[in-house]
Design goal:
Blueprint lengths: L8 E2 L1 H11 L3 H17 L4 E2 L1 H14 L1
Parallel strand pairs: 1-2
């Protein structure tokens, strides 16, 4: 949070999806957020939405 400007921003639906999939486990939260941020960056968006998280979840499932 130090020096953060509030961007990129996660939508409520994105946060719910991350929590639901990770069950609050910090390592999984971090991994999903990282992948979702990358998906939003690829779309050139400052907002991480449910579709970005869904893409992150699919990517994570391929690694499992």
């Amino acid at each position: 949070l130090a020096g953060a400007s509030g961007r990129p921003r996660f939508t409520r639906a994105a946060l719910r999806s991350i929590y639901g999939r990770s069950r609050g486990i910090p390592r999984l939260v971090n991994s999903l957020c990282d992948k979702a941020l990358l998906a939003a960056y690829a779309r050139d968006s400052e907002e991480v939405n449910w579709f970005d998280v869904r893409r992150a979840i699919r990517d994570q499932q391929q690694l499992d």
